[in-house]
Description:
By secondary structure, chain A is an all-beta fold.
Amino acid sequence: QVQLQESGPGLVKPSETLSLTCTVSGGSISPYYWSWIRQPPGKGLEYIGYISYTGSTNYNPSLKSRVTISVDMSKNQFSLRLTSVTAADTAVYYCVRDLGIALAGPSFFDYWGQGTLVTVSS
Amino acid sequence: IVLTQSPAILSLSPGERATLSCRASQNVSNYLGWYQHKPGQTPRLLIYDASNRATGIPARFSGSGSGRDFTLTISGLEPEDFAVYYCQQRGIWPPLFGGGTKVEIK
């Protein structure tokens, strides 16, 4: 059974960089697409971006200038960096695995981490 | 693109039929899915590509629609079905979720 677990600081200061890592167990990074999704308190789900097992990436245009997703195949991990954070970036951040039905890019998400709350505050 | 879910809240009793709507502002073909989200749990994929049940999803959950209008039907609500339901499209970049429909016990 595939399991995903997010890790990283729960509190980040405004203007600093949010960094999270997702560790995948029970399965391999290859040959899937891996994404980050967030949910601000009391709001809906927002797609952040993805990385494939080959290292290709794409990001939500609303966040593109601030987001980097990377993968470490040797550790079965992928990571999220979000720069210049503000209070609007306070959210539960989920790492997810793609269902794998699209010819390219993400489709739907069948495995989710438990989510980690990141609060942006001084 | 915008995904509009209606109603925002659906109050029903166990055993009743639930009909949830998701309307896209642009044509997304059949590239629409549905998730169930309970408090303290992770979202669970129910339906993908409009009408395909994900692995392990009970037959009481069904999806229909294409283009801009989609429906999730729960044929007879079980106690564990009371939750928030989100639709999500993959037809236009980036993937986008609707605002959710809360199915609550009447």
